[in-house]
Amino acid sequence: MTTGNIILNASLVVSLFTLILLLSDQFNKGNFELQAKWLIRIFVALLTGDFLLLVYYFYTTNMRYNYVWAYTSSDLPLIYKIAGTIAGSQGTLLFWAALISLSALWLNEKWGLKSDFMKKTQIVVLSLGSYFIYLTKLDSPFKTIYEVSPDLPLDFIPIKGAG
Asked: What predicted TM-score, i.e. pTM, was given to this entire model?
C-alpha cells in the first residue's frame, strides 16, 4: 500500500469518526464540540496533504504511479504537468474531496459547532466528503504501474508518460 492510499484511508476513518461524534452529539446532547473541531482539522490536513502529494508526484514526474504515467509526460512544460493532477477522474475526485474538506474547515473555524444548525451542516459536508473519499478509493490515483500491470519487472520505470 502506498503512502497516498494510507493517507486516503486515514482521512476516511477520521471523517467517519467525526460523523459518528456529531451524530451522537445530535441525539445524546453530549459535549463533543472540541473533539469534533480538532478531528475536522485533522481531516482537512490529511486530505489536503494527500492532494498535495499527488501534485508533487506530477511535479517530479514520478512514473511509478499509473495515474501520473497516464496523464503526463516528462517532456511537458511544468504547468501541463501540474494540470494533469485533475485530468482524470481519480485526481478530480481527490481534488473535490479536498475542496469539500476545506469548506468543512471554513465552517468549523468561522461558525464553530455551537448551534444545532451548524452541527447538521457539518454532518452534511462531512458525509459528502466521505462519499468523495470512498469514490476516490474505488479507483485510487495512487496505484502503481506494478499493481495495474503485474507482469512488469519491478525495476522498470517508464521514461515518458502517455501525455
From this structure: 0.89
